[in-house]
Each structure stands twice: as structure tokens, then as C-alpha cells.
Amino acid sequence: MNTPICFSKYFVDKYNLRSFDNVLKSKVFSYDDSTFCLYLLKSETSISSLTKELIQIFSLMKSNLKSKCKEDFTQYFNQLTQKVGLEEVDKEFIFKCSYQALCDIVPFNFFGNYENKKLFRCMVHDIIFSMKMQHLLPEKYLKTWDFDILPWRNISYTILHKILLWLLTAILPSIICLTFYVTTCKLDSDENKLIYFWKSQWQSFCDKKISKMLFSNVMEKFEPYCLGKKIKRNLPIAKRLDLKKLIKEVPKLHLVLKPNYDCRPIVKYRNDELNKRQKYRIKEKLQLLKLLTGNQQHKIETAYPKLHSKWLELNKPKLYFIKTDLSDAFGSINTDKMMKILHENYLNYHKTESNMVLKKRVSEQFRNLVAELRKPLLVRFGSTIFRWKEGLVQGYKYSPALSELYYSYMDKKYLTEHLKVDNRKIKMFFRVVDDYLYITDCFDDAIAFLSKISNYRNVNYSKTAVNFQHPSIRYSEDITFIGYSYNTVTLEVSRVNSIFYGQICYKINFTSAVENISKFIENRIGQSGIQISSHLFNLQYNSEELIWKHVFTTFCFSGNKFCTILAIACCEKDMKNYLPLYKKRVTVRITNAILANLMMAKPKLIEFVYCINHFRYLSWLALYYNAQKTWKCSNLIPLIKIELAKSNCLFGKWREHARFISSNGDVQNHAIKEICRRSDLRAIVKKMDRLPYGFEVYNKKKF
Known about the structure:
Layout: H1 33-41, H2 44-48, H3 52-68, H4 91-105, H5 114-128, H6 138-142, H7 157-177, E1 180-184, E2 194-198, H8 199-215, E3 219-221, H9 229-234, H10 237-249, E4 252-257, E5 263-268, H11 276-293, H12 300-313, E6 320-325, H13 335-352, H14 356-373, E7 378-381, E8 384-388, H15 399-414, H16 416-419, E9 427-432, E10 435-440, H17 443-453, E11 465-466, E12 474-475, E13 478-481, E14 484-487, E15 493-495, H18 517-524, H19 544-569, H20 579-601, H21 612-629, H22 637-647, E16 658-661, E17 667-670, H23 673-676, H24 679-686
Parallel strand pairs: 11-12
Antiparallel strand pairs: 1-2, 3-8, 4-5, 6-10, 6-11, 7-8, 9-10, 13-14, 14-15, 16-17
Helix pairs in contact: 1-3, 4-5, 4-7, 11-15, 13-15, 19-20, 19-21, 20-21, 21-22
Main location: nucleus
InterPro entries: DNA/RNA_pol_sf, RT_dom, Telomerase_RBD, Telomerase_RT
Pfam families: Telomerase_RBD
């Protein structure tokens, strides 16, 4: 009964809902009272416990619904004038209108008093303002429902739960979907935030985008499945059913919004429908593509320290950084050329491989792969089936592997000179999917790279950046690449600030695991989504001040997640019970992870002098700043201050304590006062007097 429910899945990305008849058949309105109650409760046992008053309320609810749904609830949203083009609709407006529609359907007698109605209003509000795939606990709202008044006196909780579930998973989503299209967008950092658009505007937007793709020959209608309604009606019933089944098996094409209201077409497959054998076959083909692609390039975490050492050895020469990416990397692939590359790589493998058993197995897998790739790639938008023609579609199971095969070949063809290792020079090349980074100590080499990369027909020059003057390319002293920011003067490495932009609640997936809130918090506030690597925590090229800044920022990110989860999913009086989880997962485990990476990458000649309490203090300081500003979390502040006082050997009263602690909790070294009160570290920590720039704590009003 206390199972979390994802209410948003009933109205997110629902494009084909045309009429309320698609949700509730008109024959339901002709049911007598007992049949309608059976339809609502799905149990004859539950019906026997209903009072006459409750049956009358359900009957009135049915008649109200019949009268209000005639215009598909559009009459409730007419007061706001629609503008031309795609426009985000205010959620508060949608909530007020949707709640009014529900109040006109559900009589006041159903609630019994204003307190119960207020709880219902709160549920509707939280559903409309919820996030993608956010699971809510009905028990959280209904535990204060007043069952001591009519009509709920002597009525079980199960009946109330079923009725509310019907209202909130069938009626409310219909009210929303018949007027609005709800989706997520890549418009900002809030990737799980739901955006509401007028349905007519969204349909117009989609029609234009689909027409543009048809006109530019990206895809075409697949005639065998695109029969007209008149032709379909004349087909035998068996053939119509087969056609309907085939259409349902075709994956849906979704248009995912990007900045400036551009969109990216993405195909969404239903992997849950694949059996184990099918999944194994796909895995086999992906491994084959990886084999034919050839050696994968080394990781930047291992290559960058070598580059830095060479830079020091050559007396810190000027380095030239180039960062670029490819626009529409999948869609710009020439599929005919891709198939030729695939065959060429296979023939090269066949010539060099001496194991006959392996050759035979790879040959069979290759034939199966080619046969599958030659099949028409079908996608469905609405009820229309299209065949994809130009490039690879994002979301297709083989697209990433085929893209890697294609661009690896292109790199070898056009960038051969830049891929070669020369021990006399500083040179580093990296490509991750469609992002390129090239570092060299030769200006002519950098210019040559820019010239060669122009052979790719889809270079995105608006996102290209260099650290030297160029007539047509943006200059930047800090170059960003796959979540890292590189200072091109000092070669220091930091996180990209944009990682922390936006409300943190939209970066947390509130799945059904929220049922066990302790386990949910424990899993979410650890290292999930937080970069803790030897590339970042590296004393070879990062100063100690920057390392401590990274430590504090890491704790701030975890503290923000912790406070946000508590504010959304917990009662204020229960929050203090979860502080031990923060201590376990953040203060202890994240500290251990940071230290492990620091010591692994630390050069032998560099000393890193610290006390374990320095890390503890920063972890609680980060939580203190988050709790100060996060809604509902201010009651944690006195408890956090106690923990701060315990670990404050840097500024507070001196006490004997452990400097290092082993994994089993034993004291390895006792603290040394001179180390604990390092003046240089005190100066660094004094600067940490607020949350880092770009951090946003949970704000219920904004949410």
C-alpha cells in the first residue's frame, strides 16, 4: 500500500491522446452505480463495505465527469492567450486550472472537510510540479487523512487509495495531456525538469521539424506501413491486427529540445521486451564492432601527467590547445562510406588473424551484422512510419559503436601526423565520441590541425576554442573538455563550473528506491555523479590550494544532494536521524576516496601534510552552508555545529585526536598540533566562507 508511484509517467511524452474517449470509453457513463463502483475499485469485496452515501458520491462524480469532459476539459484553459511559436506554460496556471477541473468533478462531500481537501490539493500540486520519473509516496499525504468524519467513517484506507489513484493516474493526466504536451528539455542544466507546452504549439513545431527532415532527405515515409484509413478499413480484420502489431513494434522517434528551441531526434527502444538471447546477440555484435575498430586510445588521466612532466622537462614552453566538436555527429555519417570502412576493417582483420576457429566465428558474426545493418531502419512518429536514410539515428543500439568505427577511420585518414607520438615534442590528441582536444608545443602544428580537421564536414566552429589568437575562432585561456577545465598557462585541472549549475533536485533520480529513504540517501550522496579521480586530485600539476578547493567543492555537492533529498522526501522531525548516513558516506568514504586518488598520483618528492580532521571539518562546513539555505533543513544546524566543533582542530580549541585512522578504525598516528594548525591551510580554509559560485540549493518556491 505504501509503494511509491511515478505519477508523471502518465502524462509525460504522451503525444497521441486525441480525446477523452481514448481514456474512458463512453459506455462507462451508462453503468449503473454498482457497476461503476466495481469499475473504480476492481473488487467486489471492497464494494460490499461501501456506504450508501459513498455510492451516491461516486454516482455524482460520474455524472460530473460526463458533463465536464464534453470539450475534453479545454474550457478550463481558455483564459490564457496562446502566442505564436513554442512557449513554455506556467505550471502554476496549469495547476490552478487542473485543480479547478478536478474540484468540479469530485464533490466536496467526498472529502468530508477542508483539511482532507487541502491534502488532495497538495497531492495535485506536487504531481504537476514533479520531475521526470519522480516517485511519490501516497502514504506521506494520506497518513493525516481524517477518517473520523463522513463519508470515511468505518471505511478502509484501501478504498480511498484506489479512488485517489484513479483520479490522479487517469483523470488528472487526461486533463493535462488533452491540452498540453509535457516533456523534458536540454534547455538548461535541469535535465529532469518537466516543461509544459501548448499541445497545438508542440504539434505545429513537430510538423515543421518532421517536414524539414523529409525535405532534406533524412528520412522518408515507409509506404508498406503508411496505408490510408480507407485502405486499412477494407483490409481483412486479421491483416489489420497484424499491421497494428507491426506498427507497435517500431520504436518511437522523440524530438528532444535543445537550446534555442532546436531539437535532436532520438529513437527510444523498449529494451525490456528483449529476451536474453536477443540481448546476447546484440552484445556479440557490439564486441565485434569494437574488435574491428581497433586499439582504443589511452585515457586522458594517464596521458596528461606524462604531458606535464615533458612540459617541465622542456622548461615550460608555450602550449597550444585546440578544443572542438562535431555537430550532429551521428546524423552526419555517410552510411555508404561507413559500410565500406566496416568491410575494409573486416578484411584487414581476416588477413592478420591466424586462429582459424576465431576467424570462422567472426566471419559468421560479421555476416549477421551486415545483414542487420542492411535492413531498413524504421522509426515511428505518431502513427506514421518512416525509414531513416541519412546518417545514424541517435538511440539506435549500434549507433555509438558504428560512430566510433567511422570517426576512428577518419582520424587516421586526416590526422595521421597529429596521432604520431614524437618523444622530442609535446603532443597529445584525444577524441571522446564527437569532442576533440589537441595539445601541442608547435604553433604551426596547431594551425595544421585546424586545417586538417576542416576536412570533416560537420565541425562546430561555434563551440571550437583555442588559447592563441585566431581570426575566426574564439580565444579562451581555460579550455573545457569532457567535464574538466584546463588552465592553458599553469596546466592546472579543475571541474567545469556548469556541472553545478541548476537545481540539484533535477539531477537526482527519485526512483521507487525512495520507499527505503535511508538506503536511498546512502546510495545518492556517495560518489554518484561526483568526479573523484586522480586527474583532478593530482599534486603533480595542481597546487595544494586548488586541491583543497576541489575537496570543499566535492563535499558541497554531496551536502547539497543530502539536504535536497531530506527537504523533498523527509519530515523535519526525522531529518536528524539521517546525519549518521552523511558521516558514513561523505565524511568518511568520500574522504577515503579523495585520499586514495591523491596518494596514487602524488609524486614522490611532493609532501601532502594533513590531519584527517581537516577533511572532516570541511565536510561538515559544506553541509552547514547547504543546511543554512535549504528549505526545511535549518533544524539540522545545531547538530552540524556540534560536529564542526569536534573536528575543528584548525581553528578551534586543541584536543588530542588521531591524525590518521586505519580502515578498521584504529588510530595509526596521533595528531601533531603544528600540522593541525598550519597557517597556510588556515588562510586557504578562511576563503571557504560560502558555497562555491554556481551552486543552487533546493528552493521549494522555484521548484
